[in-house]
Amino acid sequence: MKPGEPQLRRNLHHATRGIRAKRNAVVAEVPDWEELRAAGEAIKRGAMRRLDVLLEELEAAVQAAGGHVHWARDATEANAVVGDLVTAHDAREVVKVKSLTTDEIDLNQALEQRGVTAIETDLAELIVQLSHDWSSHILVPAIHRNRSEIRDLFARELGLEGLGDDPEELTDAARRHLRQAFLRARVGISGANFGIAETGTVGVVESEGNGRMCTTLPPVLITVMGIEKVLPSWRDLEVFLQLLPRSSTGERMNPYTSLWTGVRTDDGPGEFHLVLLDNGRTRVLADAVGRDALHCIRCSACLNVCPVYERVGGHAYGSVYPGPIGAILTPQLHGIPGDADELPWASSLCGACADVCPVKIDIPRLLVHLRSRVGGSDPALRLMGFAMEGRRRFEAAQLGRVPGMRTGIGLGAWTKGRDLPPPPRETFRRWWRRTRG
Amino acid sequence: MRVALLVTCLVDTLFPRAGIATVGVLERAGCEVDFPLDQTCCGQMHRNTGAAREAERLAARLAEVFAGYDAIVTPSASCAATVRETTDLGVFELSEFLVDQLGVEDVGATFPHRVTYHPTCHSLRALRVGDKPLRLLRAVRDIDLVELPDAQECCGFGGTFAIKNADVSLAMLDDKLRSVRATGAQVCAAADCSCLMHIGGGLRRAGDGVRTLHLAEILAS
Hints:
Low-confidence stretches of chain A: none
Mean pLDDT of chain A: 93
Number of strands of chain A: 10
Strand order of the largest sheet of chain A: 1-10-7-4-2-3
Low-confidence stretches of chain B: none
Oligomer: heterodimer
């Protein structure tokens, strides 16, 4: 990985510090925060242990409430299900709630191939979509853009000459553009923060109200949910609706929490489809250590404290899941060995992420575990291991008398920006033997 | 009190003065120090680099070498954290041992220089030593201790990370060096020679006059 441009690094430094401070303040005012984290972890661990049972329970509950449930093994299957449903309703256009899961499967592109336009209705997602860019942060997709860039984009893409770069004016322009789309749309598409097995309730939390529009105005609603998002019972929401907003936006409560159970005849969409997506998740579940990555509730607190994320930016992680969570989730979702095997190395193991994770994922432990899975043991390291396993070999190595020891450990990369320490006159053990022996 | 010194392979080989100072501080605090000569490496580097098998062998070897000691003291927070996770040994990082086990904060040191202290990630977030090193430093006579801005930020070392992702590591180091310079300190101290090797290497390359010293070297003065 390479550090980003100075402007990007300044933007990220500024933005992540801001969210971090807000998060710390609202977390500090919760007296039982640590208990909440422990509860969140326990609920997630329990849910993953009974995932097969809970998913069937969820399916039955959704169906009983008048919804339809579809199972998708991978992105292709999920996109086919959604595409067929949209086509069956003759829709040329769908409105979307910001959803990482649909980004993960490239749903928008799949719909485009069928001649269907997907309109992102979250402000930052809209910015990213209009600029043919992709998200660089779980929560703040356009964190890498500043307001004058956004003004120029809106002026060009929405045909708004003379637009100012005042945030209110920009938001207003987006609102006017989107309002028409909400009223036209016949199909809404969302992801899901939670799916409650007990009741068949599906939920989305958001800040702008666009999610509420998408899930209530169009006559047809399609929700694509990763199978790890299932929670056993309604009461579990009590824990996650406290953990999530405080960890992600640094708010006590998110402005909009939309929860729906199947369909009703008198209100909201008359047709609801829930697509349960695997796409590598059962592969993650098969790893007894790595599976903790499935506990993630996508709050992005780990991104905001990560010194590596701050320097490289979200795009460097090559997936919709950037930062520390991406470094442990993406390689597992894609399969090891695979195209994301370098990601577990994108960390200094500083541990800041584990301290803020609302469900206590021990990210450094998972990183180290995944490093062993992607094949960490290179020849130089094995040689050093060998040298360390005997006193005489170690003492010879200390004096540089083991071939390969000095060249094998990447001195070139070290001396790129750092001098080596001046060699000491004698080793510690030599001093010990000389003075105490 | 009899204690065994786990000097760490890095200190033994490249930073013997930190080891010698640790012995000095412990002896001045009334400890009898043993140095089991069969010790090599705790396996942290292998463990963190994903060489799990080598790491396990080294941890098992270390447990054997130090078996029978009630207290093992090491001048490295990250090695202490590793040993605590991989063995049942009673291992303490130096500041933990002095403050928690011996109940000492004033070790009788005098150090008339401007010092800033960098709390390393593993001392903060793996061992949770909190302000123990700072309490020891505050009790040093004539010291001018200056707070490091953004102290809790990682310096960018991270073991193999410093080599595998050298450019990102150096970008993190740049910011740490900027903080160190802002203090006007003559000395940057820490509880891990590995991070100090990285910070010190950057300071020397940049031609800064700031020295790096292990916490023990100040406490032994």
